[in-house]
Amino acid sequence: MDDTTYELVVFDGDETLIDGDIVDALAEHVGVTDEVARVKTDVWEHDLDAMEALSEQIFPLFECVSAAELERLVQSLQFAPGAKAVASNVTCQTAIFTALTPLADHIADELGFDWKRANDPTVEDSALTGEVRGDIIDRGKGPVLDDLVAELGIDHDRVIAVGDGPHDIPLFERAGFSIAMDPGAAVRDVPDIATDEQNFFEIVPHLEARGVLDVEGVQRHADGPVDLTVD
Prior knowledge:
Layout: E1 8-12, H1 22-30, H2 33-46, H3 50-58, H4 67-76, H5 83-87, E2 93-100, H6 101-111, E3 115-124, E4 127-133, H7 135-139, H8 141-152, E5 159-163, H9 169-174, E6 177-180, H10 185-188, E7 193-194, H11 204-209, H12 215-222
Helix pairs in contact: 1-2, 2-3
């Protein structure tokens, strides 16, 4: 049993809480799936700046997508298996750090999160301009976490981070305990725990062991018993 008193769990959105990616959904809508896939592969395989790639290479492809269509795409995304049951039953403060504010708003509303940090897509005449603004795109998730823990008056070692990709590495490196959900090879060795599936029931024993999870609440949401065995 970890005797640290954890006070904040920070979750990534795309490909972590969400079974999918708002960027991929936008790419499919616009018809630029192959272009976006190439950029994302370069980021994963060559250790490139994920936020810079999003800002300079990917988001400009979404110019002229209507704000209404973006919201429709956000609402169409599904949560990962077990994500709602687990994340909504965390007993300390929770935060969502993700790419776009509309997705952060959706996740925070659905799961009752305390904090959200994301980037605002610039909108003119009810359509995206292809630009995004925000601390995550400008500074990365690490400094944004630094600001939040300072605001809350807590230490980094009292934070649990849950993510999946290169953009989450600064969270993994700062947090007292970190979990990657089905990460790629470039990320797998960075966090304390890496799962083989994007299934939140796999991390129940790890969160329960650190005193941040209402397991009975998870079981009610899961409509059945949850395995608490830590591998």
